[in-house]
Amino acid sequence: MKHITLLTLALLASLLLGCATDDGAKRTSTSIDYWEKNKGDCAEVLKSPHAYGLTRLSHCTKMWEMYRHVDQIPLKERSMYAVAFSEVSHKSPDPYDRAVADAALSRICIPRHPLGNNGQVREEIPDNMVCTSVSDTTIGGQAVASSNPFERIKNTVQVQSVPDRKMAEASNLHKRATAERKKKAFGAAIRLYNEALDANPFYVAAKYDLAGAQAISGDERGALRSLEELYTWNDPVADQQLIRARSDNDFESLRDNPNFKLLTGYVRIALVNGAGTIGESTVAAMRNRLESRNFAVAEIGKSNRPELVPQIWYREGFEDYAYRIRDALGQSRMNVALMRNADTLNDILVVWGQPEAAQLGAGQSAPVVQGKRAQGSDNKLDDLVKQVDDTKGSVDSARDTGKKLTP
Could you read off the pLDDT of 346-367 as tens digits, one per residue? Predict the structure, then answer.
């Protein structure tokens, strides 16, 4: 609970800073003077975050939140500063520093940039912003960008045909590669798949099978690169193969990789019954409804406490899927919210609740986990539900307190 308290304090501090004086023009001028007086080298640090260590970035993020006004900063500059804040948000071991970084991102109305395969923050400039000025010191609203950063490259490469002779050569090499793979000679198979692709660069079957052989042999980065190439090809067969990869055992080691999920559309979904015995039939119907619409359910759990309303929680980057799942369930009024600091493998947490659960009590034992991929998992779905509920409650409390403090 410590990180929740610290987040609340950080939000309150930001609200109090925005209410420090009565005159808007004076408030802006004073804040700029304080930033210029106290920033030291932080302006340079925040513009070149990869050149500085995490300690320095955390310090400058705190200085920014204490003194810097943001309402006149253009979009691209905000996105640039967001690289530094995202670095702290992703990597700082200190929950307070992470909370301050998240507050800084929220205040400049930029989503946290994702981490690339090299472990570095990858800047993703939002397409546009829906932000409004809350005061002279703060910005409210939300940046609008695709939750899948790969969307911008999807189907952007036009597939070209090759002469019949080359097609025959590629097909023969592909058959030889498959024979080697059956013998578990993955090195030879990968070499032959690549030769097939030299003959026919847009040979979908060879590219897909190459990715599978790379994944099985431990070259996960290579497998992701091959899948990403398929993702860019303007070919419906390539799209079908990416969907196939969601359930292909060759990619078992990549199943929880965020880039694999974004490239293939694989989503790990958990259903939690928070309404006790009266909710069992509803949860079973929800599972059937989702799976009939090609949303596989990885886990089913029972909450130790009653849940009064149904809700969907999503991991960052899976907002679109959360709303698609809500639509698939036919629950248009179901609340959808972001999971924060969620220690779980699941991307979507669908929690069933109803008012009657308050009188009956959930009366459940520890979560019942079903499904092959859930075996051996330490996930505590009921604890996770409580965690995200408590986080939302803390933020709402801070927001209400701030409204009372605002003159």
Answer: 889 999 988 887 766 544 443 3
Nearest residue to 276 via CA among 330, 335, 354, 348: 354
Q: In 3-state terms, what secondary structure has residue 125?
A: coil
Cβ of 170: how many Cβ atoms within 10 Å? 23
Helices (H), 73-149: 75-91, 95-107
Residues 6+ apart with CB under 8 A from 383: none
Taking each helix axis from N to C terminus, what angle separates 54-67 and 95-107, rounded to the nearest 10 degrees?
Answer: 50
| pLDDT-derived band at 162, boundaries 50, 70, 90 | very high
Report the chain's C-alpha Rg in angstroms: 25
pLDDT (mean) for 283-298: 86
Distance CA 355, CA 351 (A): 13
What pTM was computed for the model? 0.47
The strand order across the sheet containing 348-352 reads: 297-302, 269-273, 348-352, 311-314, 335-338
Q: Which amino acid is at 317?
A: G
Q: List pLDDT tens digits, range 377-401.
A: 344 455 555 555 554 454 444 445 4
Note whether 121 and 86 are within 8 A (CB): yes
| Of 31, 10, 9, 60, nearest in space to 136 by CA | 31
State whether residue 324 is helix, strand or coil.
helix
Find out whether 220 and 257 touch, Cβ atoms under 8 Å.
yes
For residue 31, the SS3 value is helix
Q: Which two tokens stand for residue 309?
A: 């309303």
CA-nearest of 93, 88, 117, 118 to 105 is 88
Closest of 276, 271, 272 to residue 363, by C-alpha: 276
Residue 228 parent element (H or E): helix 220-232
275 and 352 Cβ atoms separated by less than 8 Å: yes
What one-character DSSP code corresponds to residue 115?
B
DSSP strand pairing (297-302 vs 269-273): parallel
From first CA to last CA, the distance across the chain in angstroms is 31
